[in-house]
Amino acid sequence: MQWIEEQLLKxxxxxxxxxxxxxxxxxxxxxxxxxxxxxxxAVVIVLHPHEGDAGLTLIQRPVYNGVHSGQMxxxxxxxxxxxxxxxxxxxxxxxxxxxxxxxxxxxxxxxxEIFIPPSRMLVQPFATVLNEIPNFIPDEKExxxxxxxxxxxxxxxMKTERMDIFMPHIQQTKSVPAIRYDDxxxxxxxxxxxxxxxxxxxxxxxx
Length: 207
Known about the structure:
Blueprint (H helix, E strand, L loop, with lengths): L1 H7 L19 H4 L7 E12 L2 E8 L11 E2 L2 E3 L7 H13 L10 E2 L3 E3 L4 E9 L15 E6 L9 E8 L4 E10 L2 E4 H13 L2 H4 L1
Parallel strand pairs: 1-7
Antiparallel strand pairs: 1-2, 1-4, 2-3, 2-8, 5-7, 6-7, 9-10, 10-11
């Protein structure tokens, strides 16, 4: 797993990944100028051993009458008043949603912030590396499924497909670019984070 940390430490030129956008999405700098201001949020991308190689685990949100119903995501949520920082937010949400407690002293790597227009959240993703398979204990109210995925899935053969996805918050079906994994569709901000991770780790050349 050391190669992942080495890749994450390398300089990286930020990209917009606008080809994956399902919305007209402001940049993080533009979003901060909006009224009302976006809610600060954070997620954690936990990279860990998987079937003799490396992988990560996504969660599927439960189906409900809301913006992120049924979506694939990384554990995370909005910043509370008691959170000292967005990293504390990310780690608190990680523990609440999937029962994984990680110390703040670990190495965490910031990815680019992403604004999510429907929920008006400005999300700071953090990536971290574990050398052992994590013991997730999902909260049934927050998590419908845990979905471990090998990093090789995001290699050179990965492609996006335009898929029709029903969005309950607007009661409409939209055609959006999505990454398919088994029966799961990954789109929106989560797909954009995965594309950035793919580039940072140079997965197209590794797999």
